[in-house]
Amino acid sequence: MDFVEFFNEQYHLIVTVIAILLYPLLRKTTKKLLLKAIKGKADPHREYRAELLLNIILAIVMLCLVLVFWGIELRGLLVLGSSIFAMLGVALFAAWSLLSNLTAFLLMFIQNDCRVGFWVRVIDGANFLEGRIIEMGLMNVVLEHVDGHKVIYPNNIFVTRPVMVLKNPPTATKAPTTKRILGPKK
Question: How many CB atoms lie within 10 A of CB 143?
Fold first, then answer.
């Protein structure tokens, strides 16, 4: 009877210890599933970021499950979490921009049409921007122009604008030549 009484009194701690012990196993399992789903379709940089995002989601889910066993209602956690997230989003960034950039990163990761090293043309109305993708981050895409300039493009705009993947790198733009006239023309 001592074991049953101990279990009834300390089941919160037992569930917490089990969750802590299961977390590394679940991380390995999700990593294997991610690598199996990708199968070399993405570069290591994007794999690392997707793995990090999955680990954060898994940690939040495990924390919520443990807190439910400790008697904290999810309704209260959701209100607290959404309030904190809204305050941080408004205080640091525009909340829609932060969320849309993260969502756009997931869309770009799943779609996988644009990769690091590809030459692209982003079309924005009558204007366009050409460059080679050198980094695809959680919040933005870094393009390197033919002239060597770096352009940081937000993910949400990169996803919503038409993007043309170029077969060949574009030619460098030539500076306009102007003739300087020093005096009256004869």
Answer: 22
Q: Reduced to 3 states, what is the DSSP secondary structure of residue 19?
A: helix
Q: Which helix (H) or strand (E) is 140 found in, with range?
A: strand 140-144
* Amino acid letter, residue 29: T
Dihedral sign, Cα of residue 27, residue 111, residue 145, residue 101: negative
CB 146 within 8 A of CB 169: yes
Compute the distance between CA of residue 9 and CA of residue 157 in angstroms, rounded to an integer. Answer: 54
- At position 132, the amino acid (one-letter code) is R
CA dihedral for 13, 18, 20, 21, sign (positive or negative): positive
Cβ 45 vs Cβ 136: under 8 Å: yes
Which among 64, 102, 98 has a CA at the least distance from the CA of 81?
Answer: 64
Task: Find which of 115-119, 140-144, 154-158, 178-182 is predicted with most confidence, using mean pLDDT.
Answer: 140-144
The pLDDT tens digits for 116-149 are: 889 999 998 888 889 999 998 888 999 999 888 9
